[in-house]
Amino acid sequence: MYNETEIIKDTTELGPDGELVINMGPQHPATHGVLHLVVTLNGETIKKIEPHLGYIHRSIEKMCERLTYRQFIYVTSRMDYLSSHINNTACALLVEKGMQIEVPERAKVVRTILNELTRIASHELWIGAMAMDLGAFTPFFYAFREREMITDIMEDTCGARLTMNYIVPGGLMYDIHPAFQTNVKAFIKQFKEKVTEYEDLVTGNVIFQSRTKGVGVLTAEDAISYGCTGPVARASGVSCDMRKIAPYDAYDRVEFDEVIETDGDSFTRYLVRVKEMNQSIRIIEQLIDNIPEGEFVGKTKNVLKLAKGEFYQRVETARGELGVYIVSEGGTTPYRIKFRSPGFSNLSVLNHISKGSMIGDLMATMGTLDLVIPDIDR
Amino acid sequence: MTNEAIKEYITGHIPTASFDETGEWLNILVESKQLKSLATSLNGQPIQLDFLFCLTCVDYETHLTMVYHLTSSKDRTMNIVLKANVDRTTPEIETVCDIWRTAEFHEREVFEMFGVQFLNHPDLRKLILEEDFKGYPLRKDFEDPINMIKL
């Protein structure tokens, strides 16, 4: 039906200088979601990357304008689905700030533990998926073995494994499962034993190191200018941990280090996330035996109304700084809501840091940016 | 740098700027034509607000308001909110993406959602919506009879 040259013409496009334009995604195994990148190549060298977004755009901001302050939290679980607890916390904190609701100590501590468990689960999934993108298949199973324990704890506590919706304005939806503390302690014990296993498997691996070291280098100035946050910016030496800058919940009473490295390449971004998991364990260990007794939710009115004005709440998700900006006209629904998602800003730097590198390195760069597409599209 | 010092600096630069301290952070409202020069000077010495962490727009039905949340990477506790009103029928404002490069994507989003034209933007195209999408979805008067958002 077609001869060979026609088929090549159909699938590729040669630009004026012999440039080759290829589409990566929206159905690509390594983008882990519907991200569409239009990559302009010269030989194997990347000249330009243009992200085309919107394949999973659900207009969450417009939807939230019609939802009450109790309802809109459930939508945010669907943004960064790997950090759904942290997204819920951001919204709950904002409503609490706007209405001056007192949150019981018990709820604060449980929220902090759950947020850190979520962060570990997210980083575990990332390590597995990222190593798989670079050709190492085994770490995926190792990482999911520990992640499974966290999702089981979440299922016991919240009834859901991914979109938790457990945090409400004022505290928690219901009290924790009786076996919560025992299960979390069992997880900590297993994690500490096994974390070295897949660290040995990946960190010291010659192939992994040569694929990631010196690839996708991001300088501190560029990280600031592009608004990068989270492990991506911290690997470039930019201090940006919201848990330190503006502590919320129980973060002001726990000791942990903000992991900062200065090399800024893909391998450093990997190291930062591994070290962050150990810091998360440190936070949970300090809190798990000290969950205060008492109420799990503060007293709130049935109908929540925010005062007229503007409110902004920042939290640290597994990917960086999530900002929730609400303009309130004094009603039961937000007048305008904006989610400043970490992935959106982190994606914008992709073109800058992969320009001039090989197409094979794009996987490593993109993988270590840890993009979650529903978080970018919203 | 304290809010008082920032206010003094901005009044010296733009005498007509108005301030609002009722919220959590200092709000500064300037005219849209003055925004670019103020933004340039805020990014430099002595204030060094080099981190634009949120850029968005709000539709107040009579006008649109551009909102820029700024902070300094040296001192993250110093946050200010810069605002500029733009006309709703022909919204136009100078781009800030040569000052903070993160603005490039954020401005493209505001462009498609609110229809604000960013002058001198290097690549002002739709980012999330389809190329042939009609209307500005985040404006208050936007109605879509097929994909209803109203409850």
Number of helices of chain B: 3
* Fourth CATH level, the homologous superfamily of the largest domain in chain A: Cytochrome-c3 Hydrogenase, chain B
Rg of chain B over CA atoms, rounded to whole Å, is 16 Å
Which percent range describes the beta-strand content of chain B?
25-35%
Report the strand count of chain A. 9
Kindly name the structural category of chain A: alpha+beta
Write the layout of secondary structure elements.
The complex is a heterodimer of chains A (378) and B (151).
Chain A: H1 4-11, E1 13-14, E2 20-24, E3 36-42, E4 45-52, H2 60-64, H3 72-76, H4 84-99, H5 105-133, H6 138-158, E5 167-168, E6 171-172, H7 180-202, H8 206-212, H9 220-225, H10 231-234, H11 242-245, H12 266-288, E7 309-316, E8 321-328, E9 336-340, H13 342-348, H14 350-354, H15 362-369, H16 373-377
Antiparallel strand pairs in A: 1-2, 2-3, 3-4, 5-6, 7-8, 8-9
Helix pairs in contact in A: 4-5, 5-6, 5-12, 5-15, 6-7, 7-12, 12-15
Chain B: H1 3-13, E1 18-20, E2 26-31, H2 32-43, E3 51-59, E4 64-71, E5 79-86, E6 92-94, H3 103-114, E7 117-119
Parallel strand pairs in B: 2-5, 6-7
Antiparallel strand pairs in B: 1-2, 3-4, 4-5
Structure description:
The complex is a heterodimer of chains A (378) and B (151). By secondary structure, chain A is an alpha+beta fold. Chain A has helices spanning 4-11, 60-64, 72-76, 84-99, 105-133, 138-158, 180-202, 206-212, 220-225, 231-234, 242-245, 266-288, 342-348, 350-354, 362-369, 373-377, and strands spanning 13-14, 20-24, 36-42, 45-52, 167-168, 171-172, 309-316, 321-328, 336-340. Chain A is built from 16 helices and nine strands. Chain A starts with a helix and ends with a helix. The mean pLDDT of chain A is 86. Chain B has 151 residues and is an alpha/beta fold. Chain B is elongated, with a radius of gyration of 16 Å. Chain B starts with a helix and ends in a 32-residue tail after the last strand. The model of chain B has no long low-confidence stretch (mean pLDDT 85). The A-B interface holds A 53-54, 57, 59, 61-63, 66-67, 222, 224-227, 229, 238-240, 245-246, 309-312, 314, 321, 323, 325, 327, 335-336, 338, 340, 344-345, 347-348, 352, 377 and B 22-25, 27, 50-54, 56, 58-59, 67, 69, 73, 76-77, 81, 100-102, 104-106, 127-130, 137-138, 149-151.
